[in-house]
Specification:
Elements (H helix, E strand, L loop, with lengths): L1 E6 L5 H15 L3 E6 L7 H9 L16 E9 L2 E2 L1 H9 L7 E8 L5 H14 L3 E9 L6 H15 L5
Helix pairs in contact: 1-5
Length: 163
C-alpha cells in the first residue's frame, strides 16, 4: 500500500498534523510520500477572501495514479479550504477510485463543516471517495500522542486490512 499526504500550511499547524499522520502511516508500514502545496502569497485577510470566493491559485500539480490512499490537509479560512488545496484537487490527475482522508486545522471552528463539504465535493467530483475526516483545533496540536491515536483509529476503522 502506498499513500501520499498533500497539505498546505501557513502557520505550521497543518504541517505538524501532516507530520503526525506520516508517523502513524510509517509505523503501520505504509510507504508514504509527503507533498506541501504552495500558493498563498498574500496577506491572511486577502487569502481568506480568496478561500471564501473559491479563487484558484497557481500550484504545482502532482499525478496521484501510483497512490492507494490520499491524505489531503488544509487549514480552514473563511469557512473554506485554502485556495491552494482546492486548486490542487481541481487540477491534479489520478483521483478516480482513490480513498481520501481529509484533515483540517482551525482556530475558531466556525465554518468547519462547510469547509469539509466543499472539499469533499471537489474530491468526489474528481472521482475520489472521502472515507474519513479529521478536524483538529490549533491549540490541540500540543497533544500529539492523542492525535496519533485518533489518526490510527481512523486508518484502522476505514481500512481494516491496514493493521
Amino acid at each position: 500500500m502506498k499513500a501520499i499526504i498533500v497539505y498546505f500550511s501557513k502557520t505550521g499547524n497543518t504541517e505538524a498534523l501532516a507530520t503526525l499522520i506520516e508517523e502513524v502511516l510509517k509505523k503501520k508500514e505504509v510507504k508514504t510520500d509527503t507533498f506541501s502545496v504552495k500558493g498563498a502569497e498574500g496577506a491572511f485577510v486577502q487569502e481568506c477572501f480568496r478561500a471564501f470566493t473559491a479563487k484558484e491559485v497557481s500550484i504545482d500539480i502532482k499525478n496521484l495514479e501510483e497512490y492507494d490512499l490520499i491524505f489531503l490537509g488544509s487549514p480552514i479560512w473563511a469557512f473554506s479550504p485554502v485556495p491552494a488545496i482546492s486548486s490542487f484537487v481541481k487540477h491534479s490527475q489520478g483521483w478516480k477510485g482513490k480513498k481520501v482522508f481529509l484533515f483540517f486545522t482551525f482556530g475558531s471552528g466556525t465554518g468547519r463543516r462547510r469547509a469539509e463539504r466543499v472539499l469533499g465535493k471537489l474530491v468526489e467530483k474528481q472521482g475520489g471517495e472521502v472515507i474519513s475526516v479529521l478536524q483538529i483545533k490549533g491549540k490541540l496540536m500540543k497533544m500529539p500522542e492523542r492525535i496519533k491515536e485518533r489518526v490510527s483509529f481512523f486508518i484502522d476503522t476505514s481500512l481494516p486490512d491496514s493493521k
